[in-house]
Amino acid sequence: MIGVFDSGFGGLTILKSFLARLPAYDYIYLGDSARAPYGNKSPELIYKYTEEAVDFLFKKGCELIIVACNTVSAEALRKIQQKWLPENYSDGRVLGVIIPIAEAVAEEVKKSPKRNRVGIIGTRSTIESRAYNRELEKLSPGLEISSQSCPLLVPLVEEGWTGRKETKMILKYYLRPLKLKKIDCLILGCTHYSLLFKEIEKVMGKRCQVFDSPKFVAEKLADYLVRHPEIEAKIFKKKKRIFYTTDDVNRFKNLGEKFLGQKMEIVEKVSLQ
Questions:
Q1: Which of the following is catalytic: 150, 185, 190, 208?
Q2: CATH number of the domain located at residue range(s) 2-96+215-269 in this protein
Q3: I need a labelling partner for 204 at 20 to 30 A (CA). Which of 45, 181, 227, 256 fits?
Q4: Once rounded to an integer, what is the mean pLDDT over residues 124-137?
Q5: Does the annotation count 185 as an active-site position?
Q6: Does the predicted model carry a pTM greater than 0.85?
Q7: Catalytic residue among 62, 69, 185, 208
């Protein structure tokens, strides 16, 4: 199975893209909703939560896990890959969401070198980690990179306030500094922001290209499976989908179906502690 892990609901936008691009595979989704959001927690706590989550998914039979959370990808993924995996699941693989979207932006800048002003929005942890900055600078030196943390957006999205005037006002407030810098590309550094994509495009205007994670992460996963047939061969292709949450099942199902864009048949509550 392919595991998809997020601190809550946002990773369902990544899974939605996987189901469209790679529908044959079996998927398990784990949303740690009881401890969300991760974006305002310490790096040590984020790592602890991540360790518990990936261990849970490997024990459920996952061969490959996608960390569909920018905060976790920024704060914990490297340590999980370099230290925890070799000691616990040497044959397992854990991938994140930052590199695929950074590569997509770098490719766009390569095509249009003068469009080199890049903006990043994300949770406080993601922005303070400078994970996107590091990847972008490696891939495309000389970029003008500006970033903006948006701590209120995740709770507003999870409360279903995406269309409210209050959310639009807060969004304009967060995006204004980046718009004043006339950025050419904007990275949505949080999977929750997919639900605000059209509003963000509207605020930023036509000259700014907005990069959202799901499309690019799905493309990279498809490419990864082609390049690693030894892993691909182990993943069942029965179109099975299982969803786990650490919080209320009904709330997860009701809100999660809005993120996923389809019904969830199997939803179970679990504890990771």
A1: 190
A2: 3.40.50.1860
A3: 256
A4: 94
A5: no
A6: yes
A7: 69
